[in-house]
Amino acid sequence: MYQKLVKGLAIYRQNHTKSIYVRLRVDGKELKKSLGTSDLDEAISKAWALKFEMEGMIKAGIEISTVKRYTIEKACRSVISQLEAKKPQKPIYKDYVLIYNSFIIPYFKNKAIEDLTTKNIRIYFESLELSKTRKTINKTCFTRLFQFLEEEELLSKKDFPSLPKDIKTSQSQIGIDFKESELKTIRNFISGEDWLEQPNINFKTSEYRKIFPFIFEFLLETGVRTGEEMNHICFSDIYKDKGNYYCKIRKGKVKNHLQREIILSSKALNCLIEIVSITQNKKITEQQLLSLKDGFIFESSFGKIADWCKLFDQIIKTLIAQNKIKTKYTLYSCRHTCITQMLLNEVDIFLIAKQVGNSVEIIQKHYDHVKLKDSKNIDTILNHNKQKIFQF
Q: What residue stretches are annotated with the Tyr recombinase domain (predicted)?
């Protein structure tokens, strides 16, 4: 598409973008830039406005520069703005923003677009120890950056730098399960008056703290993933069949975007009942849990879901600072502990995989440390040299 408006002024659209651009010749100089819209009438209006603005600058004796000074940081900030403006927001967008702010921008700070070379990008990747997931997210961030630069006509598609293909990734390691003594310490802390009744905390923080002990036990009991998987559980996802209670897991890391179902123990159900007693100020039975008005189970009375991982991180930092525990746990440790305990109790590995939403292979690969905690195996190791090997 190309439309001439008047001599020295035209608008056009390139194949690679929906945005309409303006080409303006003024005072012997040519200016080309995106008008930031795909609407034709709006683009025409903006093009004329730009022409009048430039002509006004010339009359005022202000020099017109047709070269945009763009640093890599400035381009990244623009991409971040685009991500934050997208509707609806996807959880992965926060990961992209984190990579830009914490890694790409600090590394390429004050560097010009011309420094965005294949070599420099390769050195960037080699400077980091990335998991396979983080490597993929970083590559996506660079791809989005290239696309933005192309739309702004700051980088031609044929000049896109190559992303490295042979960067080694760090071996992903499974998280750690709770040591029995430290789990007891954590439980005592989150249910203690010093934490629950701390002076000068607002009512929102107070409610989050009252809810948290039951969330903690629910995660230990079910092995549900923290974050999206847990936060999206609704009352309508709970149902009863042949005397047993189940919960549908609809969001998060579900294979092929299909939901899975988990069985709820009496302890897990009681946790949900206690949470309702706090957030809805009502006492209910297990059966009444099925007939509550639908909504997110872990939502507060004021309609918000806390960042439970962040809250737990604060708890762990406090306990380490007080020298009460030594291990830097995450809330995901609840899941690892749940799986570890089921293995120790000799639950069939196929059933565990169904309950927690992992493959059998993943559990076999990452939870072989459980063998050393099995009492039968402990006895075998400790007693292996008690029999006389050589007899004279």
A: 185-380
pLDDT at 257: 46
Q: Are the C-beta atoms of 50 and 9 separated by less than 8 Å?
A: no
Cβ-based neighbour number of residue 214 at 10 Å: 22
Query: CA-to-CA distance for 261 and 190, rounded, in angstroms?
Result: 29
Per-residue pLDDT tens for 174-196? 578 899 999 999 999 999 999 99
The span from the CA of 169 to the CA of 125, in Å, is 10
Residues 6+ apart with CB under 8 A from 249: 224, 229, 233, 237, 259, 260, 261, 262, 357
Residue 211: what pLDDT? 97
- Measured distance CA(113)–CA(259) in Å, rounded: 44
Low-confidence ranges of the chain (pLDDT < 70): 14-18, 36, 65-69, 170-174, 252-258, 366, 368-392
Q: What residues are paired with 263 via a beta bridge?
A: 246
pTM: 0.58
- Mapped onto helix, strand or coil, the DSSP state of residue 282 is coil
pLDDT of the residue at 392: 42
The residue among 157, 130, 132, 131 whose CA lies nearest residue 146 is 157
Using CA atoms, how far residue 140 sits from 25, 51, 92, in Å, is 36, 37, 11
Q: With contact defined as beta carbons under 8 Å apart, do 230 and 334 qualify?
A: no
Q: Which residues face 9 on adjacent strands?
A: 6, 24
- Would you state the pLDDT for residue 140? 96
Quote the radius of gyration of the chain (alpha carbons, Å).
29
Q: Which two tokens mark 177?
A: 């399960």
Per-residue confidence (pLDDT) for residue 179, from 0 to 100? 93
Sheet containing 2-6, strands listed edge to edge, beginning at the edge strand earlier in sequence: 2-6, 9-12, 21-26, 29-34
Number of Cβ within a 10 Å radius of residue 69: 8
**Count of all residues that appear for the chain in the document:** 392
d(CA 323, CA 115): 47
Q: Classify residue 14 as exposed, middle or buried by CB count within 10 Å of its CB (0-12, 13-18, 19+).
A: middle
What pLDDT does 380 receive? 52
